[in-house]
Design a protein that fits this description.
heterodimer, A: 341 residues, 8-stranded parallel β-barrel, 11 helices, 45% helix, B: 214 residues, Rossmann fold, 8-stranded mixed β-sheet, 7 helices
């Protein structure tokens, strides 16, 4: 079995060593540095998630990915996620197909329905429609990926009649995943449309997702499709010791989850809930390289997944702390997980 | 002992399958339904909710004693109230203003508004305040030292008692609240929402909340 390992960021706004927030622009330049460094330490994939807030100032991750592409050779680059529901599938395809061109075939795309919701009012969509928006747009995206002229009609954008959409890819479709947060009907949709499955596990015990992998493979069979890979995306932070990683991450995680709790239905974090989430039954990968590697290996096995993407960083951490995290992930965690598997 | 009530769970998204699994484990006969064809959720039922019966919503509700609403509140207005006449309805839904503002849910407690629409049903608010990610992991048998509390609120004491019994059997210490209005403490932003507390902690948090006195 071949396993691959990625890093994801939401453009979490950095602070300086004194705790003062850096500018959006500096944070974005730091993300580009982090992506280049990720390749140097042996990470296979670098993903940027679309967000539109002061603490995640990252609405155009594909532009940053293009900057990283210009300075790297091997690492795959993609969205994690692109909020397809509030975007135009044709434009998303064109941006990532262009990224695929400039990077020499290294683009991927992970599509999301909208767990992060600030793009809906920004672009004039009603969140109440998010299911219909995503269903239609994911269906169209699957057509666009095939590469030929597209004929499509729906309610959420103008129809296409035998439309050639450029740029064409050189060697078939680039890898495309649908991000799923625990809704089994979304797993079925990914299989029905022929996308690979990205399990976003950001709270609670990871093993509750194990049946989803099985559901995905069974659904692929039912729809007459070949097996497709499953990846796991989860947040975490790696430092030299468990104590240091927890001390750096906890106040940042507490603050950000408290901020989004009201709008997204999360519980307000407590030290008790943090202990649960960072323990073996939780969704956070926070600790020393050894602690994090063991947890990744266990959960990849349990979940029948072949790729792990660590969502590193949190608003308020420093660029240096993130670079250390990336270095430890590439040089220590990934080799250790491969060994354990 | 008489047979356990028949449950219909409406919704096969994040929440419905979790409640259905807990109920099956506790011995309840469970049907699950969405707005669509049961064939569409056959595979989900087989692998994610083994033991449940996928059915058309109208059939599942007609045969059930207790109907659990585990759908987005924005879809609740699509449910025909007639199909729920005479049923004990558990409202496990939550109102999130960000889900598109639903004028009807802006002012009062969301379950009070649900009850006003379901004039032929008895509505109890329950199972809405513990996150679906944790609901199974935190369930414990009666008497376990780390058992957590689940709030159960309703205007009808017998119905509230029945759902308290359901909460107990699936693994939580029920804490009864004497009205749907009092159940506003279970809503998002309330003192126990998402907190997963023991019974004494839960009772104290509710007591200390200003909403308890309104």
């Amino acid at each position: 079995m071949t396993y691959t390992f990625g890093l994801d960021t939401f453009g979490d706004r950095n602070s300086d060593a004194g705790g003062k927030p850096l500018s959006h622009a500096q944070t974005i330049r730091n993300v580009a540095e982090e992506g280049v460094f990720a390749e140097q330490v042996g990470v296979d994939f670098f993903g940027i998630g679309e967000h539109h807030t002061d603490y995640f100032p990252m609405p155009a991750g594909d532009v940053v990915l293009a900057a990283i592409a210009a300075r790297t050779e091997k690492i795959h680059l993609g969205s994690a996620v692109a909020v397809l529901s509030s975007d135009d599938p044709v434009r998303v395809f064109q941006r990532y197909s262009t990224l695929n061109a400039v990077s020499g075939g290294r683009a991927e795309v992970i599509l999301g329905r909208g767990s992060s919701i600030e793009s809906f009012p920004l672009f004039g969509y009603d969140l109440a429609d998010y299911e219909e928006l995503f269903e239609e747009k994911a269906t169209l995206f699957a057509e666009l990926l095939k590469g030929g002229p597209v004929t499509w009609e729906g309610k959420t954008r103008a129809p296409l009649l035998n439309q050639d959409v450029v740029p064409h890819t050189e060697s078939g479709p680039f890898p495309a995943w649908i991000g799923v947060g625990g809704n089994p009907q979304s797993v079925i949709r990914a299989a029905r449309l022929g996308f690979s499955l990205a399990l976003a596990i950001i709270g609670g015990p990871p093993d509750r997702f194990a049946p989803y992998s099985q559901l995905f493979q069974r659904a692929l069979e039912k729809f007459g499709r070949p097996p497709l890979p499953v990846l796991v995306h989860s947040p975490g932070h790696i430092a030299a010791t468990d104590e240091q990683a927890r001390a750096e991450f906890w106040p940042r995680w507490r603050d950000i989850i408290t901020l989004v709790a009201a709008e997204r239905g999360f519980a307000i974090p407590t030290e008790d809930s943090f202990d649960r989430e960072t323990g073996p039954r939780g969704a956070l990968y926070v600790g020393s390289p050894d602690t994090v590697a063991r947890k990744i290996a266990t959960n990849l096995r349990t979940l029948g997944a072949t790729r792990f993407d660590l969502k590193y960083g949190m608003p308020g951490l420093t660029h240096d702390q993130l670079m250390t995290n990336i270095e430890l992930y590439g040089h220590e965690v990934i080799p250790r997980v491969r060994e354990l598997l | 002992m008489r047979e356990l009530s028949k449950l219909a769970v409406l919704g096969a998204g994040h929440v419905g399958p979790v409640i259905a699994r807990l109920a099956i484990k506790a011995g309840y006969p469970v049907a699950i339904a969405t707005s669509g064809d049961p064939e569409d959720i056959a595979l989900i039922t087989e692998l994610i909710i083994p033991g449940a019966q996928p059915r058309w919503a109208a059939d599942a509700m007609a045969d059930a004693d207790i109907v659990v609403l585990a759908i987005p509140l924005s879809r609740f207005l699509d449910v025909d109230p007639m199909l729920l006449n005479g049923k004990l309805v558990v409202d496990a839904m939550n109102y999130w203003p960000s889900d598109g503002v639903l004028g009807a849910f802006e002012d009062d407690g969301s379950s009070e508004i649900v009850a006003r629409r379901l004039t032929g049903s008895t509505v109890v608010k329950a199972l809405n305040h513990i996150g679906y990610q944790e609901l199974e992991d935190r369930a414990r048998p009666a008497g376990a030292p780390d058992r957590r509390a689940a709030g159960v609120a309703g205007d009808d004491p017998a119905a509230t008692a029945a759902i308290a019994g359901l909460a107990d059997r699936i693994g939580y210490d029920p804490v009864r609240l004497e009205s749907l209005r009092a159940g506003r403490v279970l809503q998002p932003g309330g003192p126990v929402f998402g907190a997963v507390l023991t019974r004494p902690e839960f009772e104290q948090a509710v007591r200390e909340d200003a909403r308890s006195f309104t």
